[in-house]
Amino acid sequence: MAWLFERIVELAAWVALVLGLVFLAGAVYYFVHGVLAWMNESRLESTDLLIQSAIAASAFVLSIVAMGVLACIDHYVFDADERIAAK
Q: What is the mean pLDDT of the chain?
């Protein structure tokens, strides 16, 4: 059962990484289009795009933090036996 839980934690960390990359790409996309809209004097559209960029950037940060937490759980909970046995 511990083996299955460890694989689920590792899978969740990979999913968080992939989602983080998707959110990062979305943040860059919205930011670039928001700046281009701002340069073309389309203030209302640029504001919306920049807000979407900020939302995607915060989702990126949260998914990477989640990945880090899951990696810590994997390391300190499941790999503790290997570190103790190596001493």
A: 91
